[in-house]
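Field log, afternoon session.

UNIT: design team B
ACTIVITY: writing a sequence onto a fixed backbone
BACKBONE:
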């Protein structure tokens, strides 16, 4: 009993382990399936963008605080220089022995001091972002800027408004870019495939439906007959239509161009309201962004720095517009390239197309009474197929349907009563023939 119970316990433990492994495997399969779905890839890109922004902030914030402290020190020096100049100018105007300047000397000395002060302020502005105040600092690595930075990496736009300055930040940018760009490309391919299917379906249902209706009405004018033969539009299977099927339909080039211009115009209207740009600059920014050129002369700073619920909505809309726009533009360009390739191949093949000759087969018009085609040898018949026969030779052939002169035909028979090659017992085995029939005198 003890050994049997031990075996039962071992079997239960084994089954439990197997079930746990199976459940774990099913969980990972379900997780991977969801991750690489449309929704999963979008959520994954959001997590990578937001998580990367937070990591970059933590890496670069230390250096940012040091720059803020340098700016405060330089601002204090600028204020001291300003006070020194005001005092110096006062003493220059006094008629003391040390500063008994003429008008020309006074002007030269003041101009020299002012040039040095201006140069000092300009250097402070370029080096530590001096803004005329001792306190106050516009952080480069806050969340909106960091999020815009990670999105520009993922989409390969690269506005260049900020960049990491620490060694750790630069090394992390390399590894982060490899993962983020790969994920974004997979997401764009997935979303682009869905957009392509939707675009083809919409074009087929909206634009091609009228042409199908006209084609069916011209072929079968009767409505009752169309219903009986199941040739109505409602009877067709989507994708396998008889005319302009959805599965093989091609989007015209003009439709793709219209979609691109419409999407750029939509972005121009939106960024014109959000950023305060004119319509032309907004359209220029939309095109530069969607083509991933990203010169950096214009960047959506205000769209990413909004406050409150409205600012958050504007930031989300900006991200969605840029992300979907990349998929839309690449999709339309791909469809245009496909159409141009097909047209070029069709034109190229049209130049070298060879027209085959008609296949003509000559059928013998007369046979002997046994049904053998003695008039045409077997070897010659094979050569008649696919042969090019001049029309004048065909016209000269005897017409089988021409009337036969029975009198001449009978007179042409020899005195023996049979034709050459005709067997003697041709009519002996014919049914209903009596051997003892006597000829009838005419």
């Amino acid at each position: 009993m003890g050994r049997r119970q031990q075996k039962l316990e071992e079997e239960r433990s084994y089954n439990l382990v197997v079930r746990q492994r199976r459940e774990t495997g099913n969980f990972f399969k379900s997780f991977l399936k969801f991750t690489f779905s449309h929704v999963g890839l979008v959520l994954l890109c959001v997590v990578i963008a937001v998580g990367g922004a937070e990591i970059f902030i933590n890496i670069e914030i230390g250096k940012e605080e040091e720059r803020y402290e340098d700016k405060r020190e330089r601002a204090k020096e600028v204020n001291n220089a300003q006070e020194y100049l005001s005092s110096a100018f006062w003493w220059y105007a006094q008629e003391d022995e040390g500063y008994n300047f003429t008008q020309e000397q006074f002007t030269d000395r003041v101009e020299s001091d002012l040039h040095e002060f201006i140069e000092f302020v300009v250097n402070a502005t370029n080096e530590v972002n001096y803004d005329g105040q001792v306190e106050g600092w516009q952080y480069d690595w806050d969340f909106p800027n960091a999020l815009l930075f990670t999105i520009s990496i993922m989409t390969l736009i690269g506005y260049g408004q900020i960049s990491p300055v620490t060694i750790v930040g630069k090394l992390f940018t390399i590894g982060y870019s490899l993962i983020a760009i790969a994920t974004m490309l997979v997401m764009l391919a997935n979303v682009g495939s869905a957009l392509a299917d939707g675009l083809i379906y919409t074009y087929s249902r909206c634009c091609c439906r009228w042409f199908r209706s006209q084609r069916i009405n011209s072929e079968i004018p009767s409505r009752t007959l169309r219903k009986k033969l199941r040739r109505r539009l409602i009877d067709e299977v989507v994708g396998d239509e008889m005319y302009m099927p959805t599965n093989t339909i091609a989007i015209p080039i003009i439709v793709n161009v219209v979609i691109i211009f419409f999407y750029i115009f939509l972005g121009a209207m939106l960024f014109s309201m959000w950023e305060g740009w004119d319509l032309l600059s907004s359209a220029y920014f939309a095109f530069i962004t969607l083509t991933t050129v990203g010169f950096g002369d214009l960047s959506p700073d205000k769209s990413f720095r909004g406050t409150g619920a409205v600012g958050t909505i504007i930031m989300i809309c900006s991200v969605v517009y840029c992300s979907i726009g990349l998929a839309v533009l690449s999709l339309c360009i791909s469809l245009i390239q496909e159409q141009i390739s097909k047209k070029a191949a069709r034109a190229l093949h049209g130049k070298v197309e060879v027209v085959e000759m008609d296949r003509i087969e000559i059928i013998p018009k007369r046979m002997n009474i046994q049904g053998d085609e003695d008039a045409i040898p077997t070897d010659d018949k094979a050569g008649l197929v696919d042969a090019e026969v001049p029309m004048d030779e065909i016209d000269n052939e005897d017409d089988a349907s021409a009337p036969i002169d029975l009198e001449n035909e009978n007179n042409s028979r020899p005195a023996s009563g049979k034709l050459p090659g005709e067997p003697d017992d041709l009519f002996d085995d014919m049914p209903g023939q009596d051997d003892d029939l006597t000829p009838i005198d005419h």
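LOG NOTE: The domain at 255-346 is CATH 1.10.287.70 (Helix Hairpins).
NEXT ACTIVITY: expression trials, pending approval
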